[in-house]
Each structure stands twice: as structure tokens, then as C-alpha cells.
Amino acid sequence: MLRIEKKKKYPLVIVTVVALVAIMVIGGLIIKHLNNDSDPDFVIVKVEPETNEAKGGADVSLRYAGYVTLLHDEEKIVLNFTNPSTSRKSLALELVANIDGEEVIIGRSGIVHPGYKIQELRYSLGRKIPYGKYKGKYVVYFYNEQGKEEIIGSEIAMSVLVK
User: Fold this and answer.
1) 86: how many CB neighbours lie within 10 A of its CB?
2) Helices (H), the chain
3) At 18, is the secondary structure helix, strand, or coil?
4) Dihedral, CA atoms, 106, 140, 148, 41, nearest 10 degrees?
5) Model's pTM, two decimal places?
6) What are phi and psi of 137, to 5 degrees?
7) Are residue 94 and residue 108 in the same domain, yes or no?
8) What pLDDT score does 52 carry?
9) Based on the domain organization, do 80 and 123 belong to the same domain?
10) Could you give the C-alpha distances from 118 to 1, 17, 26, 114, in angstroms and in order?
11) Same domain, yes or no, for 49 and 67?
12) Are 134 and 160 a contacting pair, CB within 8 Å?
């Protein structure tokens, strides 16, 4: 009698599963890379206009917290500085801290358009500042519609909390 053996399908199933897992992992890495800069200098997010904001807007309109937090271990500065959608100017920001009587720039942003806020900046001083609270200021540079820096600017007092 002729006997027909069935071939085992296990090796084919295993190869298929391994291939699918590899595709999912590689796809996830590609998506993560596209959605997240691996080393951003600053983080901005889009903010929705508030319902009570006046239509038309002012030339310059800002919202900000009176302090920033410098996290040494993460080499970042956490802040809340908003360029509301009612503003007509883009801006860039420098953070300055007064360390032992010396004014030092601890962080800089790129251009922030109306309707966005800055949440994080990279700490750029490169030296350790002792933990504590320091006087500081936001230095704001305004830009016209063509992206050229205008002469007007602003300095706003705030505190720097070092943790």
C-alpha cells in the first residue's frame, strides 16, 4: 500500500510569524523617527484660540509663566510661553539667568509663530548651576511676516528654578 506523508507546516508558520514581527518592529521605528526629533533644541505645540480672544488681534500678544524650571539631569528647561493666535508677530526667545551677578543665556528657541507655545528648551550653558532659585528674564525678539527680525523687542522678568 502506498503511504503519503503529510508535510509539516510548522516551519512555514514560524517563518511567517517572525517576518510579521520584524515588519512591525521596523515600521514602528520608522514611525517613531518621523514623529519625534531625536534631539530637539526646543519643543513647541499648537494652541487653540480661546473663545474670548478678540478678533483681529494686537501686533504683539504674549502669555507666559513667571518662572521656568531647569532640570539638570535631563538637560532641559521646562516653561510655558505662548504666542497666542491673536498676535501678528512671530517671536524667538532667550532665557537669561543671573548666576552670582553674571547674566548668562541658559536657553534659546527657534521662531515661534502665532498660535503656538514653547514647552521645553534645551539647556545650553554647559555647566552645572547650583540648585536653587535665581532671578532671570525672558528676552523676546519679534519678527515680521517676512521672517526678518524687527527692532522691537522685550525683556520680561521671571525666576529660574534649578532642580
Assistant:
1) 17
2) 10-35
3) helix
4) 30
5) 0.68
6) -155, 150
7) yes
8) 56
9) yes
10) 81, 43, 31, 11
11) yes
12) yes
Residues 119 and 141 in one domain: yes
For residues 47 and 82, the answer to whether their CB atoms sit within 8 Å is yes
Q: What is the pLDDT of residue 88?
A: 86
d(CA 107, CA 128): 14
Q: Which residues of the chain fall short of a pLDDT of 50?
A: 29-39
SS3 state at 47: coil
CA–CA dist 61, 38 (Å, integer): 31
The CATH number for 153's domain is 2.60.40.1940
Q: Are residues 80 and 156 in the same domain?
A: yes
Q: Are residues 24 and 53 in the same domain?
A: no
CA gap 13, 39 in Å, rounded:
40
The number of residues making up the chain comes to 163
pLDDT tens digit string along 86-108? Answer: 888 899 999 999 999 999 999 99
The residue segments making up the domain with residue 30 are: 8-38
Q: Which long-range contacts (CB under 8 A, 24 or more apart) does 71-78 make?
A: 71/123, 71/163, 72/123, 72/128, 72/129, 72/162, 72/163, 75/122, 75/123, 76/120, 76/121, 76/122, 76/123, 77/106, 77/107, 77/120, 77/121, 77/122, 77/123, 78/119, 78/120
Through-space distance between the first and last CA atoms of the chain, rounded to whole angstroms:
83
86: nearest Cα among 65, 107, 42, 116 = 116
